[in-house]
Amino acid sequence: FVLPSLAALVLLLGYPTAAAVASSFSAPRGSALTLANYAYALSDPIFWLVVKNHWMFVVLTVVAHVALGFAVALLLNLPVPGITVFRVIAILPWTIPDVIAGIMWRWMYDPLYGVVNDVLRRLGVVDQPVTWLGEPSLALLSVAVADIWRGFPFVMLILLAGLQTVPQDLYEAAAIDGAGAWRRFLHITVPGVMPMLVVAVALDTVWQSRRFGLIEAMTQGGPGNLTEILSTFVYRQYFKFFDYEYAAAVAVILAVMLL
Predict the structure, then answer these.
(1) What is the average pLDDT across 17-24?
(2) What is the distance, to the nearest Å, from the Cα of residue 118 to the centroid of all Cα atoms in its chain?
(3) Do residues 153 and 166 touch, judged by C-beta distance below 8 A?
(4) Cis peptide before 223 (omega within 30 of 0)
C-alpha cells in the first residue's frame, strides 16, 4: 500500500538529492571525486558574505514572524463578534505568491513613485526620497520587512491552533487564585503553545532558508551581493554562471546547516 507513494518520493526527491550530492563531489566535466568545490566555497569571500546575509535574514524574519504572529494570534483568539472576518483578513498576505509580493513591495519602495517614501515625506520623517533597495545599509532590512509582512500569517496560524487547545479551565482557576493577566500568559499560555511554537520556528526557519521568489523579484540579490542568500546564490551559480558542481556543493552545505 505504501510502495507507490514511496516510489514517487524516491523518484521526485531521492534521485535529485543523490545526483546533487554526487555533482558536488565532481570536478567540472570530469568524473573524479574531489573536495575542490567545498574547498573553494570555504575560501570564497562572496560565499561567506552570502552566509552572513542568509542567517541575518533568516534570524530577523523568523523572530519577527514569531513575535508578530504570536501577538496577532492572541488577538484573533479573543471571543469577539466577527472574529472569523478578522482571521481571514490576517491570513491574506500569506496567500500572495512570493513573486507577486516582491513586485508589490518593489513598487512601494520605489524612490520616485513608491508609497513608502510618499508617506514618510508627508509625516516629515525624511526630507528626500530614500533608495530603500539600492542603499547598502538598508537593502537587506527592506527585503526582510517585505518578507515579515508576507510570512507572519504562517506562524500565526500554527500558534492560533495551539492557543485553541489550551483549556479555558486553567485560566479560570488561575484567575480565582489571584493570578493577573501577565502571570496567566507566562504560566499557562506560553507552556500551552510551546510544542506548536517549536514546530513553527523549525518550519519557518526551513522556509525562510528556501526563500527565493520575493528576493529575486525585489533585488535579484543586489546591490552587489548584499541581499543574496544561499538559495538565490545557488540559483545564480547554477543557471547564470553554469557552475553546476559549485552550486551543488553550496546546496549541500545549506542542507547540512538546516539538518
Answers:
(1) 92
(2) 28
(3) no
(4) yes
**Torsion angle in degrees (nearest 10) through CA of 46, 48, 49, 55:** 140
* Angle formed by the axes of helices 244-258 and 15-24, nearest 10°: 110
Element (H, E) at 22: helix 15-24
Q: Whose CA is closest to 51, among 209, 245, 222, 249?
A: 209
Rounded CA gap, 136 and 64, in Å?
A: 21
| pTM reported for the whole predicted model | 0.92
Contact 53, 229 (CB under 8 A): yes
Q: Check whether 29 has a pLDDT greater than 90.
A: no
What phi, psi does 81 have (nearest 5°)?
-60, 140
H-only helix segments in the chain: 3-9, 15-24, 36-43, 45-76, 83-95, 98-108, 115-122, 139-163, 168-176, 181-184, 190-209, 213-218, 230-235, 244-258
Using one digit for the tens of pLDDT, what is the confidence trace for 194-208?
999 999 999 999 999
The Cβ-side half-sphere exposure at 218, using a 13 Å CA radius, reads 31
Residue type, 172: E
> pLDDT band at residue 31, thresholds of 50, 70 and 90?
low
C-alpha to C-alpha distance for 85 and 91, rounded to whole angstroms = 10
* Residues present in the chain in total: 259
